[in-house]
Amino acid sequence: MTVSARKRILVTGGAGYIGSNTTLQLLDAGYDVVVVDNLSRGHREAVDPARLRVVNLLDTEGLVRVMSEAPVDAVIHFAAYIAVGESMKVPELYFHNNVAGSLSLFTAMIRTGIKKLVFSSTAAVYGMPERVPILETEPYAPVNAYGESKVMVEKMLQWFDQIHGLRSICLRYFNAAGADPAGRVGESHEPETHLIPLLFRAVRTGVPVTLFGDDYATPDGTCIRDYVHVTDLASAHILAVEALSAGRPSAGYNAGTGRGFSVKEVLQAVEEVVGCAVPHSIGPRREGDPPLLVANSDRLQQDLAWVPRYSDITTIVKTGWAWELRKN
Ligand code: UDP
After folding, report:
1. Does residue 210 line the site of ligand 1, with CB under 6 A?
2. What is the pTM of this model?
3. Is 286 a pocket residue for ligand 1 (Cβ < 6 Å)?
4. Which of 84, 88, 199, 263 to mutate to test the pocket of ligand 1 (most atoms within 8 A of CB)?
5. Most CB atoms closer than 10 Å: which of 5, 189, 208, 308?
6. Cα dist. 13→46, 209, 277 in Å?
7. By three-state DSSP, how is residue 35 classified?
């Protein structure tokens, strides 16, 4: 696909995990991209220096300057803090960066006349849902400050649409995983809290990973999650930009596969790919972990014609492991 007239997309948080994957896919698809990132948690080397603008989201004037360099067709907004545990210790960081930062971004968009936004949201907006697979009609019920910060932004967006005509698509990710199949970018959080990179680390270092509880009411006692490949998430963002360009109204969509894997099943998939045992121990439950989180993503598949192509667990683990080896 090439994009006629090279539409320019502004990506916030483009030096982060999902943002850098999406930026590459946008460029592959023929878009022009400018990345805004303050590099507080992102990686400078993940972005072409000519495309990077090191600006803090709270700097509305700085954002207006970037938006005024050349006409921006749409914004994809990833920049946010994402660590659930940290959000329950220092919630002010989350409301400041995620909520006030988003407000500053939307203010700059209104001032420069940009009226299309794709927002990086999360399954954490649903908390501990009663009905699984989770539908978009499930009410907001976050159980941590991180999830609440995303709900607040989704709600702000509803008002910005009604009052300013800023249309948005909120993509509520389930468990983003894997790496660019071409090996260009992948996952690198510090500190790392996610299961799959921690399983890889245990293989590399021999230091056991702790599985957080094996006494849940699930078939093998460990928590079940819906792992979705980062490349498939990236393509959902591009489809969302296209849908907004085609005039689609604001909406929120779940982005998952509808298929869950337990912690032990993921561990087994890693062992099959790396060809050796993953050193591990069983520890206590992690506070706030729902036993089962699986998305119903029919709406995303139907409305935006999204087809996950890389989200089988073997491809997720293979691409993630290739990145892990490259990174280290
Ligand atoms: N998990 C684990 N040990 C770890 C990290 C995670 O057992 O060191 C479990 C966690 O309890 C959850 C699943 O792996 O059931 C996925 O956790 P992750 O932090 O990757 O994503 P989350 O579902 O919290 O967004």
Report:
1. yes
2. 0.97
3. yes
4. 263
5. 308
6. 11, 29, 35
7. strand
